[in-house]
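Reviewers of the previous submission asked for a worked example of the structure-prediction workflow described in the proposal, so we include one complete record here. The input consisted solely of the amino acid sequence. No template or homolog information was supplied to the procedure at any stage.
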Amino acid sequence: YSWQSLGTGFPEWSVRGIAELDEDGPGPALPTLFAGGELPASTYRWTGQSWTPMQGGPDGLVNMLYTIDPDGPGSAPAVLLAGGSFETIGGSQGGGLAAWDGAEWRAFGGGITSAYGDFTVGEAVRLDPDGAGPALPAIYFGGVFTAAGDVSSGNIARWGCGSGCYANCTG
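From that input alone, the workflow returned the following structure tokens.
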């Protein structure tokens, strides 16, 4: 192994999140690398040769990118989550949290809000609390926010299936 550059990179801007997404699922296209951060267009796609801005990106900072499959083994494809300090993304109200489905950005999970005026999602992690047991994994988000969707949450919240969920639960 050795270090390699990815095009010219982003010499004047900080990258705060990177993730991969296979935009066509089991189709012929290979997974793609994405970057977000303190960048002029906030989100970029790696073409294998250079970074290109994604259409309809957020109107502010992207702090994290994370790939999830919202229904696990179900038929819905994986999506790329972007979290940060933005209100709109792809022409929709994003509220600091949005999902790219391979074609367009959409708000995710009702977004986040803050009583402080500035809100941001800074990090996400997946946790399966019982390993291979029957409980489904969840995504935990941290940042600066007072509510996730319509749930009061002191800067940390869990996105996952509630009680009575099954393998391809969508929320």
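Confidence is low (pLDDT under 50) at residues 166-171. We consider this example representative of the routine output the project will generate in years two and three.
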